[in-house]
Amino acid sequence: MEITDEEWTMVRRMVRRTIRSSLHCSIASLNPDGSPHVTPIGSFLPTEKGRGVYFDAFNAQLAANVDRDARVTIQAVDSGPLMWARSFLKGRFVSPPGLRLVGTVGAQRRSSEQEVERFHRLVGPLLRTRGGALLWRSLPLARDVAVDRVVPIWMGAMTPGVEAPRRQRADPTN
């Protein structure tokens, strides 16, 4: 199923709000033994529909995992306290509070000046702090992400219009 323009607009808005409220998205990959590995990535940027990029820095385990198995899930959650407070008071979210992007990661490559500039605009004043400069001033390497599916986060009755995930039921005879 192809990602719609409406879904991609939601992705772009949610990732921006996530980076601003949480300073990172989470990327889940698979360790060599098949166990999950979750990495906070503060530099994921959606680009054209179904595509994104993140800067490949400080994440040796994620890099090793995606070099071996490119499948990932990226989770973005808006952690803004006002959005959560309003939603709890209303008893519903106006839009899903987060989403998951299911896809694959490409090989490490040189980042473009435009990608770095776009990210620097996103983090804004944080880049002028000592920590922001240490983390994000130099971002020479990047990886492309191909997004196959966008899955809104379901939180029961608080997320009207979001489909509940299908649950796999274990066969009680096994």
Automatic annotation (TrEMBL):
Molecular function per GO: pyridoxamine phosphate oxidase activity
Enzyme Commission code: 1.-.-.-, 1.4.3.5
SUPFAM superfamilies xref list: FMN-binding split barrel
Segments forming domain Pyridoxamine 5'-phosphate oxidase N-terminal: 15-119
Keywords: Oxidoreductase
Protein name: Pyridoxamine 5'-phosphate oxidase family protein
